[in-house]
Amino acid sequence: MDKHPRANLEKKAGLGKRFAARFLDGLLIGVVFGAIFFVIGGVGGAASGENNAVVTGLAGAYVFMLIGFPFIYFLYHTIMEAMYGYTLGKHALGLVITDESGADITWVDSIVRNVFRLVGFFFSPFSALVAVILIAVNDDEQRLGDMAGSTVVVEQA
Predict the structure, then answer these.
(1) Number of helices (H) and strands (E), helices first, in the chain?
(2) Number of other residues whose CB lies within 10 A of the CB of residue 113
(3) 3-state SS assignment for residue 41
């Protein structure tokens, strides 16, 4: 995987590609998280030694999902974007994240833009609607996290 591929600032990603990339990333994280959920549910239930081990295990896994999933999603996006300039979903669609001048994003840029993604998890679907509206009406096609982090999602050069 190339780190921080060259970006074409003239070619913004747009709603369709950004949605598809987010879908792919969500699918990937969902599969990984599903495996973790299965292990926690099964192991937690078996370790409890209670008659209702399945219920106990699933309850623990559910609590982990509610708390852990948003943070794993946040960490995945933050680490991938800061280290590579894209997530796997964005890479599959030829997209890259840069700062507004076209330079590689920094760890701080990635953290700032993804804090808004994390906050959005707790206010969905309203936050998704706001993001779609902002991308559609903003000349640089930025969501709120992009604006705060001074980043843009564009196609690779």
Answers:
(1) 6, 3
(2) 25
(3) helix
Per-residue pLDDT tens over the stretch 79-128: 999 999 999 999 999 999 999 999 999 999 999 999 988 888 777 778 88
Q: How does pLDDT run across 44-74, given as a tens digit for each residue? A: 555 555 566 566 666 767 777 777 788 888 9
**Cα separation of 146 and 81, whole Å?**
12
The angle formed by the CA atoms of residues 66, 29 and 72, to the nearest 5 degrees, is: 50
Contact 81, 114 (CB under 8 A): yes
DSSP 77-123: HHHHHHHHSS-HHHHHTTEEEEETTSPBP-HHHHHHHHHHHHHHHTT
Tell me how far apart the alpha carbons of residues 67 and 61 are, in angstroms, rounded to a whole number.
10
Handedness of CA 38, 42, 48, 53 (dihedral sign): positive
Cβ atoms 93, 21 nearer than 8 A: yes
Q: Which two tokens stand for residue 49?
A: 């030694």
